[in-house]
């Protein structure tokens, strides 16, 4: 049985991620607090490895803590930009991805989110995934990163055309945090 | 004064890098030996940080050791692919970069190499840089990675159109290893 009050620290500087996580976890009575902590992010093709390494290296006194990493994996680009999505977004943006896919009809892609939870020596990993496709142009103004060009499932709407609640229903991050919430609910004493 | 015989371990799986390093360091009487060692590569926009972290984490019994990291920084793409050049090459190749620069006349770019040397507690960093531009198409069959699309200086020839000796004269890696060689020459006792 896990013991702690209802607050978890989320090591991220991305306020959008905080809001998305809070949107899910408040359903489980959990409060997220943003924390500014030095994270060691390794280079790896595997998101789980990045999150695990960062969790292991994080300051032990901050508990319980979550670290999240996510990536957009585009089939025709062999999984690019993958774990480096945030770097690639900063450098070439949605326009760069659209240019790389110019004239391309196969636009399959998936978004993956890995949420890692740590309390004392306990580490748990949760994965959320959503398969979809890359739009032909940017659409919508909500969200962040590649949201304006990612269409989840078979609808004709990008993440950036959804409000937070709707995006959380579909999204990789919403799914990973839901899995965390369900696990916490079943594991925490006096929840 | 440094003390060791004339052999240095090079932690890389890239046989081309071994050959380029050996091409330079043999002028200084130094023999390079490839070594397969677990390297921790962090995500960072700064090559020096990546090399320093890896050197600090490397198995202490392997001495002296060098770690090298390099990147292609393209002006119009805000420095992309930078420290992630090898990942980006694997995923979208030279063709991906050419596509991103389609219709673009400003093609300025630079290649940077950081060579880190470690013996016991001593760590030294050497930097090599070459400014040039991205070609309009792939040319040449030598070298590796983005060599077929990188034109150093003001000549009209890519790295891939040069043999190893000529590339070493121009290249970022050649320059960094030459700086290492010169420093070793002036620092090693009984050299």
Describe this structure in words.
The structure is a homodimer of 191-residue chains. With 191 residues, chain A is an alpha/beta fold. Chain A has one domain (7-187): Maf protein, CATH 3.90.950.10. Chain A contains five helices and seven strands.
SSE topology sketch:
The structure is a homodimer of 191-residue chains.
Chain A: E1 7-11, H1 15-25, E2 31-35, H2 47-57, E3 65-74, E4 81-82, H3 85-100, E5 108-119, E6 122-134, E7 150-152, H4 164-170, H5 172-187
Parallel strand pairs in A: 1-2, 1-3
Antiparallel strand pairs in A: 3-4, 3-5, 5-6, 6-7
Key structural traits:
homodimer, 191 residues, alpha/beta, Maf protein, 7-stranded mixed sheet
Total count of helical runs of at least 4 residues of chain A? 5
Strand segment tally of chain A: 7
Please give the alpha-carbon distance between the first and last residues of chain A: 10 Å
**Topology as H/E string of chain A?**
EHEHEEHEEEHH
Helix/strand-derived class of chain A? alpha/beta
Give me the CATH architecture of chain A, please: Alpha-Beta Complex
> Could you name the ranges of chain A where pLDDT drops below 50 across 5 or more consecutive residues?
none
* Cα-based radius of gyration of chain A, to the nearest Å: 17 Å
Regarding quaternary structure, what we see is: homodimer
Give me a quick take on this structure.
Two copies of one chain form a homodimer. The first copy, chain A, is built from five helices and seven strands.
């Amino acid at each position: 049985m896990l013991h702690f009050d209802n607050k978890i620290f989320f090591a991220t500087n991305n306020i959008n991620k905080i809001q998305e996580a809070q949107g899910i976890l408040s359903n489980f009575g959990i409060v997220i607090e943003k924390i500014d902590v030095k994270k060691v992010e390794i280079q790896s093709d595997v998101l789980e490895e990045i999150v695990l390494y960062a969790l292991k290296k994080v300051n032990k006194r901050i508990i319980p803590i979550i670290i999240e990493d996510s990536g957009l994996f585009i089939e025709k680009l062999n999984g690019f930009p993958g774990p480096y999505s945030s770097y690639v977004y900063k450098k070439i943006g949605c326009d760069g991805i659209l240019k790389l896919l110019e004239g391309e009809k196969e636009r399959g892609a998936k978004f993956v989110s890995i949420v890692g939870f740590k309390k004392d020596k306990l580490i748990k990993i949760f994965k959320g995934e959503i398969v979809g496709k890359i739009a032909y142009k940017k659409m919508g103004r909500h969200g962040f990163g590649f949201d304006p060009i990612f269409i989840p499932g078979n609808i004709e709407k990008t993440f950036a055309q959804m409000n937070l609640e709707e995006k959380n229903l579909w999204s990789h991050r919403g799914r990973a945090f839901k899995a965390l919430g369900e696990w916490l609910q079943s594991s925490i004493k006096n929840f």
